[in-house]
Amino acid sequence: EYFMHGIVDEKTDIFAFGVVLLELITGRQPIDDSRQSLVIWAKPLLESWNMEELADPRLAGVYNEQQMKCMAMAAGLCLQYSADCRPNTNQILELLMDGILSSNNAGSWSMPLFGSMNFQDSLSIQEDSCNTCLNDLCRHREVALEF
User: Within 13 Å and on the Cβ side, how many CA atoms surround 39?
Assistant: First the structure.
């Protein structure tokens, strides 16, 4: 995100926190020895709620399922492509502490769909506010092509 937009803000930190949550859930590093991204590996498992495969194997299936699902939901929300669609820090804290999102947008939160969609498809199902991401990308592409 910093590379694409040159901006570091709360939403960039939220994405990074999502990666940290995935590290805690899975016991894996962000990039493994084969140079595979943890985020790319985990997104289909998050989308399908496959906690058995997602959870750190060293836990041997012994964990609080509700807490694991809250962490997985928080990670999935944090890792959305568009920064505009990510929750803020207070919403993530609320989800992790209480297991719910009771804020104004609580009804619109659900596990994002990552796995089977391409970039353009995933943008089309986001909220209207997420269209700014596409506009930014188009603007960046136009600027890049001018050189």
Answer: 14
